[in-house]
Amino acid sequence: xxxxxxxxxxxxxxxxxxxxxxxxxxxxxxxxxxSPRQVTSDASFHxxxxxETDHPRVLITGGLGQLGVGLAxxxxxxxxxxxxxLSDIRKPPDSVFYSGPFIYSDILDYKNLREIVVNNRITxxxxxxxxxxxxxxxxxxxxxxxxINGLHNILDIAAEHNLRLFVPSTIGAFGPTSPRNPTxxxxxxxxxxxxxxxxxxxxxxxxxYHYRYGLDFRCLRYPGIxxxxxxxxxxxxxYAVQIFHDAVKTGKFQCNLKPDTRLPMMYISxxxxxxxxxxxxxxxxxxxxxYNIGAMSFTPEELAQEVQKHIPELEVAYSVDPVRQAIADSxxxxxxxxxxxxxxxxxxxxxxxxxxxxxxxxxxxxxSVTRIAxxx
Length: 376
Known about the structure:
Blueprint: H1 2-12, E1 15-16, E2 23-24, E3 58-61, H2 68-79, E4 84-88, H3 94-97, E5 102-104, H4 110-119, E6 124-127, H5 133-138, H6 140-160, E7 164-166, E8 169-170, H7 194-213, E9 216-222, E10 224-226, H8 239-249, E11 252-255, E12 263-267, H9 268-280, E13 290-292, E14 296-298, H10 300-308, E15 315-318, H11 322-329, H12 338-344, H13 352-375
Parallel strand pairs: 3-4, 3-6, 4-5, 6-7, 7-9, 8-9, 9-13, 10-12, 11-15
Antiparallel strand pairs: 1-2, 12-14
């Protein structure tokens, strides 16, 4: 917690008084400003309903990933352009930079992150900074640093400043000993990737901070998310995005999972809407702090067949990546999201045919604009 962090800094500032054997500790004043609150188990006093507040001031970390830009666009329509700040450690493209506030933010830099929250009067924080499953396995030390140490900074700052905090979780938070069809909200979770382990850690730490310090922590376990306006980012479910790009560009697709590998999936519009809905839900309606959300489940073969209804000449081959296949075989096949549907009214809009039609409509419009630009 911040109090512990500040105390350790104070101890490191111990000075040796000249001429005697005693030590004098110089303690920073700011460590006195935060004391962990002893709260009851419901800890709902930070969760003011949306109708009782002005528009939230929002910060999105890891904002240049698959979901951050889309979420910023949705939130800016609802709360106003200048009330939503997108952040990342990478340089944004012009389209992102000029669409609304963007700042540099490194979640491993506690001081920088704290200054951003204070200077911009942040009230809602969406924490999307993370290394995904396959990328994380290729660089475990970095994944551990970003996904776990970075989360600790986020939790401390959110608790200190009474933020409403959203941290996404994933189908990767389950493992081979979890029930797979369907997978309920509460069951055994023993993931075998650093990504999954870090997400279970995030779920449990978020719940702990809620019950111990009153942090308004909210979390959704996302299925594989499919979107047309972002490139695959190193996840095991990214084949379901790549197939559309390859179908349009080359007419050939090579899948790195077995054709019968069934996984839960969701179109990005449903995902972003669910994220906003859980953040706006009254605290008293939430029976838990981490929910499954579902929409559809399909295999690579089923997706390819649906894609071929639009592009019959698409050629599909399978070259199985043993690492990604092992990850997929440990994940849920179908999500049980009955609690989300009951507690805060979750309902998806897109099934598989709708998803495929929407993806090709978007990619076709982008191709048309590109061709016109090239001609001009």
